[in-house]
Amino acid sequence: MSEFLPTGIQLSYLIAASLFILGLKELGSPATARRGNVLAAVGMLIAIAATLLDQSVLNYQMILVGILIGSLLGTIMAQKVEMTAMPQMVGLLNGLGGGASTLIAVAEFWRLLGSSETVGLDSTITMILSVLIGGVTLTGSLLAFAKLQELISGAPTIFPLQRPINFGIAIAFLVGSIYLIGSPKDPVIFLVLVGISLVFGLLFVMPIGGGDMPVVISLLNSFSGLAASAAGFVLMNNMLIISGALVGASGIILTQIMCKAMNRSLTNVLFSAFTKGASGASSGTGATQATDKTVRQIDTEEGAMMLGYARSVVIVPGYGMAVAQAQHSVRELADQLERLGVDVKYAIHPVAGRMPGHMNVLLAEANVPYPQLYDMDDINPELERTDVALVIGANDVVNPAARHDTNSPIYGMPILEVDKAQHTIVIKRGMNAGFSGVDNELFYKDKTMMLFGGARDVVTQLVSGVKQL
Amino acid sequence: MSEFLPTGIQLSYLIAASLFILGLKELGSPATARRGNVLAAVGMLIAIAATLLDQSVLNYQMILVGILIGSLLGTIMAQKVEMTAMPQMVGLLNGLGGGASTLIAVAEFWRLLGSSETVGLDSTITMILSVLIGGVTLTGSLLAFAKLQELISGAPTIFPLQRPINFGIAIAFLVGSIYLIGSPKDPVIFLVLVGISLVFGLLFVMPIGGGDMPVVISLLNSFSGLAASAAGFVLMNNMLIISGALVGASGIILTQIMCKAMNRSLTNVLFSAFTKGASGASSGTGATQATDKTVRQIDTEEGAMMLGYARSVVIVPGYGMAVAQAQHSVRELADQLERLGVDVKYAIHPVAGRMPGHMNVLLAEANVPYPQLYDMDDINPELERTDVALVIGANDVVNPAARHDTNSPIYGMPILEVDKAQHTIVIKRGMNAGFSGVDNELFYKDKTMMLFGGARDVVTQLVSGVKQL
Amino acid sequence: MSEGLVTGLVVFVLASFVGFEVINKVPPTLHTPLMSGSNAISGIAVIGALLVSGAQGWSITVILGLIAIILATINVVGGFLVTDRMLQMFKKKEVKA
Amino acid sequence: MSEGLVTGLVVFVLASFVGFEVINKVPPTLHTPLMSGSNAISGIAVIGALLVSGAQGWSITVILGLIAIILATINVVGGFLVTDRMLQMFKKKEVKA
Ligand SMILES: NC(=O)c1ccc[n+]([C@@H]2O[C@H](COP(=O)([O-])OP(=O)(O)OC[C@H]3O[C@@H](n4cnc5c(N)ncnc54)[C@H](OP(=O)(O)O)[C@@H]3O)[C@@H](O)[C@H]2O)c1
Ligand SMILES: NC(=O)c1ccc[n+]([C@@H]2O[C@H](COP(=O)([O-])OP(=O)(O)OC[C@H]3O[C@@H](n4cnc5c(N)ncnc54)[C@H](OP(=O)(O)O)[C@@H]3O)[C@@H](O)[C@H]2O)c1
Asked: b/e string for A1-17 if b means 16 or more Cβ within 10 A?
């Protein structure tokens, strides 16, 4: 590396990096996940401490102030955030990380500007990359946050000529970069590049719907890793390079997993907005078909009876439960049913909700005993022998069309086969489609009873209903 | 790195290293294993080509001659070796690799000796390490080869005062190293260290029995990787360091797997000789217990009949089949039985033979169709419904004691439950114990028929017997 | 292309391989904690910020660096704490595992 | 402890991690081929031999280097060929996989 940090620092970096690796590894298994997180945190401490020993670090006061402010804000945010707001929280933090990388590159640029050093080709290139990735991560993540937090509409926004405009901007960025490589010390051009990067982030996320934000965030997470790596190349610092690469790789893998779980391709997630026309129409027809079918509707009293007198009940939570924050009432309902000797299980679909493990996190928050949660493959065989399957704000993950309707967008996605149960009760507010926008024939089956209303209210009523049995 | 190899070479090294990684990865799954091997080979080609471009390489003629000779010998050896001789073959090649690393270190030492350069502390240390690891790998592997090839007795050799002597030598090595660090250009001391390293290799492998050689070889394989890495540190060459580390890690993992499969600890494998007294006695008593029990014995004619008129036969090959090179006759027997409409399956125990996959390699060599091979877990449930289990030169892996006899050395090792079959025919030469040296109660069960003789002869007789049915 | 850059590249590639291998064995329920955990790690950018803002006195560089420090620290601290909060809820899972 | 040595150490550690992660997913039947395959890779020592024996003219160094080249090449060529021979036999397995 160009600057010769003393061996000691280098070695502590090596230790820290190893801790990160072990941490990520342990994060992979439930039994060790927590320790893994701690390991990674320790690694971070070591890395920071070692860096502070670096001779090039002088004005400690300011730095410590900065660290204190940051830690304080971080702690507060971490304490305040609700479990259901996790995705946007990660998105936000992620954006800050990206912002930091961008600032580092800009700061370094200004340092070189001031100094008499000549700026080498490769350091210019790495700086441009660092700015680009960092900038996209920053604005992209913030926009994703805004969409998930519903500060702005989660709907995909497309404006005319979007593609040509993106294209033009990309060209502009390229030209600018080439120019900067030519005259590396031109602040104007540099700032223009920064600006373009920021705009890029917005343009990248705008056309993507709120439901896909988890995917986007995880992708941006991987970007923020790459941004850190880029910063590492700017400063010739192995620690940054390694950690960045780790995060970059992990983020990409996770993104793929999420896409696969939703059985869509990443490109489809990112660019479907541009081709929405078609799919929108098709789901539209699906809706119209719906109208001429009839659904059986019941009220909470009937529902409470069906549940209370059942031998076995399988609860299928979905995105709706998350939106309605109904997990606590659901847990209460389960308790009441068990008091009556009903055998209650939860069926967790891998992509129920809007991010992997979404349901597990919520139910765990409501202290649902872990052994009661069953994965799709374990519960599906049991559903036939189940008296009542209680579907709470889930839709796509229980849509039988996925099994047979080859031209349904969710065809092929493994589902929870609640239609095999003796009876199915579906709690949702109306007949609206779910995330995938397709109609659900389950609702029209004779064995299916619809229980309309917000998940929270309905379930609470069910609880009181069951209590009176 | 101290010497600035041009970027191009470095990059090709990076590509080569990546190919090695991908190669190892693909070697991990049957479908891709072959391609993985090819990838690794390509990586090696790239690495060598890149190195030849290095400016410090001048006398091409000699080098090419060397490469040619090496390739020629390598090809011949690879063609000549028999499948059953694979372990010792790997051992031999392994030794050569270690030898190479040692020679590199020595050569580098002589270069420094000639040059006026002062030898830095770290380069001395790395050189000592390189010599030590390389030397141990060399002699250790060769001794392992000799034991497996039965050039010398495979029995563990221990001589009086072995431990104190080892200890003394270790001390001597340490002292020598420290001295060398003091005066880095003393050829005598250096050569002494080389000598000691070579002796170490012998002392390390001598007390280990032939049966454990696969474990030892895989351990030495990992050493040879470390040796390459050490050489890499001597020459400050990333390619060597990376590849060496890869092999080192893989070798260690594989060694552990092999030990676990034999449910022994590595230390037990390496040092059991020193504590043999006890275990030897216990197995001895096992043998005496044996004498007062009786076994049912049959001849090949009866055996042929039992097999020919059975509906289903499960063949359980073991180390004995390997020793007797009986795999081809076994395959012939299976063909004959199938001709008579008998349903024939092979049951493969993970540690049957003397190395993982030993049986698979042999049977594959005899072109046994892969679908006929069943892993332990798949076949065990079927054994109850099997008419005849034909055990060919296997012993420990079918020893029921592993299930219940808590103070048997193999207690807890999962076994092939041939005693559950209607009848069991065991082919072996006598009543000798197997690898673990414990008696096998299976042989004394009423359902078990012993068919004494060398596996090869017996099976061939069985074939002709079945033909005559 | 400088020597350091090449070495950096080597390190980068190796680390990426590690990342891929380590990750692709994570059960779905842990994806969210993993996402935020690795996100916290990406806050390592903080040490970059430390290095650039280390210079004595007040320059644009230092100021930008300090802002970077704050942002990155939020990312780090917030990330690890959030992850821990999520994982606390999985503790029952440890019984099973 | 020289700068280069530290970097070397970093590279070594990362590569080891890769090695561990890549390997620990290998089915038993492939252990033998894997052993000889990775053994062939350890023949990479050949490039070390090339570097030391590269010098012009005849010195002890060069001679030792040449011997090293021969040994290492045997290890490489023999190793890869043997591995391939073993794997050829598993080809039926590919049908299943
Ligand atoms: N898990 C992931 O990683 C992830 C990430 C992104 C996308 N996705 C996708 O998200 C979907 C998840 O399926 P899902 O069945 O869980 O959810 P869903 O298919 O999106 O259906 C959710 C249903 O809940 C109802 N709902 C909404 N708010 C409600 C409330 N307050 N009370 C009661 N019901 C409410 C909605 O119907 P009403 O409006 O009629 O009430 C909607 O049909 C899948 O398509 C998956 O591919 C998953
Ligand atoms: N797979 C590995 O990785 C590995 C590595 C090292 C050690 N091991 C150990 O090796 C053992 C493998 O079990 P195993 O049942 O396959 O073998 P085994 O337990 O060693 O028994 C082999 C039997 O074959 C008989 N035999 C030897 N030569 C024969 C010949 N020419 N014809 C017929 N029979 C012959 C021997 O009895 P006679 O002398 O009476 O004929 C011996 O009892 C396990 O204990 C395992 O832990 C395995």
From this structure: beeebeeebbebbbebb
Q: What residues are paired with A391 via a beta bridge?
A: A316, A426
> pLDDT > 90: what percent of chain A?
39
Q: Token digits for A86?
A: 């996790």
Taking each continuous run of H as one helix and of E as one strand, the counts in chain C are: 5, 0
Q: E-assigned strands of B97-166?
A: none
CB of A1 less than 8 A from some CB of D: yes
Spatial distance between the Cα atoms of B258 and B39, rounded to a whole number of angstroms: 26
Express each pLDDT in A180-203 by its tens digit: 988 888 889 999 999 999 999 999
Strand stretches in B81-173, DSSP E? none
> Among the atoms of ligand 2, which is closest to the Cα of residue B454?
32
User: How many other C-beta atoms can be found within 10 angstroms of the C-beta atom of residue B311?
Assistant: 12
Nearest to B135 by CA among B220, B36, B46, B210: B220
Chains D and B touch (3+ CB pairs under 8 A): yes
Instruction: Tell me if D31 sits within 8 A of B357, measured CB to CB.
Output: yes
Q: Which of A396, A405, A446, A457 is catalytic?
A: A396
DSSP secondary-structure letter at A399? -
Q: Which long-range contacts (CB under 8 A, 24 or more apart) does A199-202 make?
A: A199/A139, A199/A169, A200/A132, A200/A135, A200/A136, A200/A139, A200/A140, A200/A169, A200/A173, A201/A135, A201/A136, A201/A137, A201/A138, A201/A139, A201/A140, A201/A141, A201/A142, A201/A143, A202/A139, A202/A140, A202/A143
To the nearest whole Å, the CA of A452 is away from the closest chain C CA by 29
> What confidence tens digit (pLDDT) does each residue in B384-406 have?
889 899 999 999 999 998 888 87
Residues A369/A407, Cβ–Cβ less than 8 Å: no
Query: Cα(B59)–Cα(A194) distance, rounded to whole angstroms?
Result: 53
Cα–Cα distance between A75 and C81 in angstroms, integer? 7
pLDDT tens for D13-53 read 999 999 888 876 566 667 788 888 999 998 998 998 888 88
Of D11, D21, D22, the CB nearest to C10: D11
Q: How high is the mean pLDDT of chain A?
A: 85
Q: State the Cα–Cα distance between residues B95 and B259, nearest whole angstrom.
A: 21
Q: Is the dihedral of CA C55, C57, C61, C62 positive or negative?
A: positive
Q: Tokens standing for B106?
A: 């020595």
- Averaged pLDDT, B23-52: 90
Q: Which ipTM was obtained for this model? A: 0.71
pLDDT score at A279? 40
Q: Which residues 24-53 of D are in CB contact (within 8 Å) with B?
A: 24-53
- The residue behind tokens 């996190």 is A361
Is the full-model pTM beyond 0.90?
Answer: no
Residue of A nearest to D21 (CA): A25
The CA–CA distances, whole Å, from B264 to B61, B270, B389 equal 50, 10, 27
Using pLDDT thresholds of 50, 70 and 90, give the confidence band for residue B73: very high
Using CA atoms, how far residue B197 sits from B92, B100, B109, B129, B397, in Å, is 18, 14, 16, 10, 38
- pLDDT attached to residue A426: 95
Supply C5's token pair.
């850059």
Residues with Cβ within 8 Å of residue B292, at least 6 apart in sequence:
none
Tell me how far CA of residue A168 lies from CA of A158, A161, A277, in angstroms: 16, 11, 24
Decide: helix, strand or coil at residue A364: helix
The DSSP secondary structure of A401-465, one letter per residue, reads HHHH-TTSTTTT-----GGGSSEEEEEESSS---TT----GGGGSTTEEEEES-HHHHHHHHHHH
Over residues A91-95, mean pLDDT: 92
Per the listing, tokens 């405009």 go with A165
| Distance separating alpha carbons of residues A131 and D79, to the nearest angstrom | 47
